[in-house]
Amino acid sequence: MQPIPNINIGQVYDQRYSDAEVHYDKLGNLAGFFGRNMPVHRHDRFFQVHYVKSGAVRVYLDDRQYVESGPMFFLTPPTVPHAFVTEADADGHVLTVRQQLVWALIDADPSLASGAACVALTAGDQGLDALFEDLNDEINAQRPGRAAALDSLTRLIMLRLLRLCAHSLPSRPTRHEDLRIFHRFNELIEAHYLEHWPLARYAEGIGVTEARLNEVCRRLADLPSKRLILERVMQEAKRLLLFTGSSANEICYQLGFKDPAYFSRFFLRYAQVTPGEYRLRQSGLR
């Protein structure tokens, strides 16, 4: 088994916040970059919360499975392995907070301590969405007192969430063999997506048939196995377009494509824009 990847959102997704205490973004924006299927990973030194305002999500916290529709949230403490799949129309907020900030809250009141949790929200919890929107406004504005506002809003949001973690949903039974196959498939994708392995080779590496692999992916991620491979290639293409000065042709070859024209068509098909248009649009947002 390969080590579980550690993802630092500030370094992988948005380098403006590589050293920040808090990183926030809309769930739809992150899903557009990473794909709707997020393989098992962890966040060393960070707490992370996904507040799903609408749509359904399949969540795996360690070996526990949850399937829930918004409004809901799931909280992952530092180092806890987790994976999730969101519906295409799911949206909400993602907040990643350096562990020291949350630890200070728990030290002040140990009853707030919580492990990984998945919580369905009720009508009485809807004020959380307004707090997230306030945080979004502060992140994107440059008003006096911005740092203090971000700190206060983050602490208030985390306090509200930690209180609710006592009402975590019961996990659903899941077939451990299916999880083993699914996680192993994602490990192999991470190791070999640049080599453009055919699906048969992935299935052989896991020791299952292509049909069995596809069945597991549809059951756990509601996505065909080939789509999971393509989403990983697209994620890396977007990362290279955002964070390197390489041309689209150079990125094409870095990703294992042999024909720049084919790579451009591939990117257009799945991103609905050309590589150059994607880079231009995203650079205008950052």
Structure overview:
With 286 residues, the chain is an alpha+beta fold. It folds into two domains: 159 residues, Jelly Rolls (Sandwich), CATH 2.60.120.280; 110 residues, Homeodomain-like (Arc Repressor Mutant, subunit A, Orthogonal Bundle). 49% of the residues lie in helices and 19% in strands. It is built from twelve helices and nine strands. Strand 4 and strand 5 form a beta hairpin. It is globular. It starts with 8 loop residues before the first helix and ends with a helix. The mean pLDDT is 89.
- What is the molecular shape? globular
How many independent structural domains? Answer: 2
Mean pLDDT: 89
Q: What's the CATH topology label of the largest domain?
A: Jelly Rolls
Can you summarize the main beta sheet? 5 strands, antiparallel
> What is the N-to-C order of secondary-structure elements (H for helix, E for strand)?
HEHEEEEEEEHEHHHHHHHHH
Strand order of the largest sheet: 1-8-3-6-9
CATH H-level superfamily of the largest domain = Regulatory protein AraC
Number of strands: 9
Tell me the Rg in angstroms: 19 Å
Q: What low-confidence regions span 5 or more consecutive residues with pLDDT below 50?
A: none
Assigned CATH architecture of the largest domain: Sandwich
Tally of separate helices: 12
Helix/strand structural class: alpha+beta
Distance between the termini: 37 Å
Portion of residues in helices?
40-55%
Strand percent estimate:
15-25%
CATH class of the largest domain: Mainly Beta
